[in-house]
Amino acid sequence: MTFQRLALIGCGLMGGSFALALRKAGGVQHITGFSASEKTRQRAVDLKVIDQACTSVAEAVQGADLVLLAVPVGAMHDSFAAMREALGPDALLMDVGSTKCDVVAAAQAALGERLNCFVPAHPIAGKEVAGIEHAEATLYQDRRTILTPLPQTGIHKMQAAHDVWTAVGSHVSAMTPEAHDATFAAVSHLPHMLAFAAVNALTAQPQGTAFLEMAGPGFRDFSRIAASDASVWRDILSANHAEVLLQVAHFRAALDQFETALLSGNTTALQQLIQQASDVRSGWTLQAGNACNNATED
Fold first, then answer.
1. Domain edge (last residue) among 135, 157, 175
2. Disulfide engineering: 126 pairs with which of 80, 259, 260, 296, CB 3.0-4.6 Å?
3. Are the beta carbons of 127 and 105 closer than 8 angstroms?
């Protein structure tokens, strides 16, 4: 499958890496790009990530048979609205958002009759640094990409989306938007929020700086994702707040069990709680396509 024209909306790490990967795979002839920052657009041209910088979403999308929307989830609605009139009826439109129900709702509100072009996608990939300068063609290699098709999604659009992500090296899965958001609230969104909270709790103490100086590999590994981009995770946690709050309740109940054991001096219960978690973690294996070493997306 070779596309004549890819329109990249959002020339950052995720979008830029997709463009480089698809070009390397021989899957696209020409790439247009739009970002709100003129400096970023020009940098994308200079780095040969895109062939043509455009000054609007509509200009970039005009004539494209493939469109990738790689903007923060909070900017999805305006981007959909801006491309609606320029989007061709046969174009394939995808996003890379980390939440799906809100993105789907934005598409339904803004795309009108072009909604059938859209196949929502979430590649589980990224880095601890953002920006077009860090884009690389191998970012999606051996990573998982999840598609969350809509009722309007035709089999040909779904197959095309599957083929595109496979071409850039991804292992492709499918689930509903609701299942996606529930799953990633548990395994990604809550863990990020806990890492943010743990680091804040540490540094808010009078001796926090001194404590931090003594931290070792355990703290390094636990807190890695606390280095994530603040604006990206603000949007993710806000967009998926209902599912995240549900996971907070589950976590609070589990934390209460530990607190009760400590307050009562019940070392037997404490060991059982630790052993339970240890057994689950020891028996867990990272599934093929889920490996990811980053703090931008997990």
1. 175
2. 296
3. no
